[in-house]
Amino acid sequence: MSTGESRGVAVLESLGSVTGSPWIYAMVALSVLLDVFVPLLPSGVLVITAATAAAAGSAATGQVPDVMVLILCATTASVLGDLAAYRLAFRGGARLDRAIARSRRLTTAQERLGDALSAGGGALVVLARFAPAGRSVVSLLAGTAHRRARDFLPWSALAGLSWAAYSVALGYFGAHWLGATWLATGVSVAALFGAGAVAAFVMRPRPGQAEAS
């Protein structure tokens, strides 16, 4: 084993010890919960790093990391964050309504979301979870449009579960396939950003759609 790889293993083993404590789950939950309001928070990177460290701990000690708890933690925090943004926009949406009305792109997005939820097809909600700031936009738009919680929340839960499972799988299997090094974490993070870029591309305004004013 090379010196660089040995150092990578040592660092990730240290992270693995933190991952095994309740604190890492609290950090993940707080980061995922708040990034609906502050999309710049690196919650996805934190989830991947925790999963990578869990894989490193598994390889070093033979113990099975509790990745299912990590997925559950991230999913629950994602749904709670979505619900908080949804309720905030639902109750105090006058100023936000005016802001949306001034933007044709946001108005179009709101209409698309409403149509998707009414038709029982919330694929847009799931897709937006991977796009940069897409989660924030969808949750706020659902609130300002006064969509029913029972129409929005099931899709929010599916979106959160999909995102959490994908992120954890990237970190965990990336470490097993590429070794317990920072290369594995970097490749996994790049794959997460790649999924976000694809989601943003799919959700982009089509030719002929109204542009932002």
Describe how the helices and strands are arranged.
Elements: H1 3-19, H2 22-34, H3 43-61, H4 67-91, H5 94-101, H6 104-118, H7 123-130, H8 134-144, H9 149-178, H10 182-203
Q: Which key terms come to mind for this protein?
A:
213 residues, mainly alpha, 10 helices, 0% strand, disordered N terminus, disordered C terminus
Overview in brief:
It is found in: Cell membrane. The chain is mostly helical.
Beta content comes to under 5%
Question: Roughly how many Å is the radius of gyration?
Answer: 19 Å
Low-confidence stretches: 1-12, 59-64, 209-213
Please summarize the sheet with the most strands.
none
Q: Note the gap between the termini.
A: 57 Å
- What's the shape? elongated
Helical element count?
Answer: 10
How many strand elements?
A: 0
Plain-language structure description:
By secondary structure, the protein is mainly α. The protein has one domain (21-203). Helix content is 79%, strand content 0%. The chain is elongated and about 50 Å long. This is Integral membrane protein.
